[in-house]
Task: structure prediction
Amino acid sequence: MRIREVSGSELARLKEIRLRALADAPYAYGSSYERERDRDPEEYRSWITNGVTFVAEDEEGWHALGHGRLDAVTPSLAYVMAMWVAPERRGTKLGATILDTVIDWARQQGASMVSLGVTDGNSPAQKLYRSRGFQPTGEREPLKSDPTRECVFLERPT
Result:
């Protein structure tokens, strides 16, 4: 398994893995499968030009994804915008590897803090983030895709 950056020529594949993530864990994202299904792959270009997207791949395909970007106003702050590991690859430390790669990227870009949001009750994701040093900020907001759920914000220094 190797972790690598997604290129601009792979937008259709990026859309595919994003849709897999949204279908697998709709409770975990601010967007929805229905909202993104009909998007043109070109609309995912910002995942590359306004940040970075990493995937875990082997000869069978892409199995995990992590997307990060710098804050537009405060570039010392980076965000983990999306994380996902295919169900059959969970428990293999692949999530930690992808997350560490996004954090390393943020550090290399000059960020001193990394922030992310996680759905309250998504215990596996919360456990992963806490194992990598993320702590609650005390901020919460309704999840955009399902306002009956809350998004809890976490952060850590790079």
In short: The domain at 2-157 is CATH 3.40.630.30 (Aminopeptidase). The chain has one domain: 2-157. Strands lie at 2-5, 52-58, 61-70, 77-85, 113-119, 135-143, 146-157. The chain has a mean pLDDT of 95.
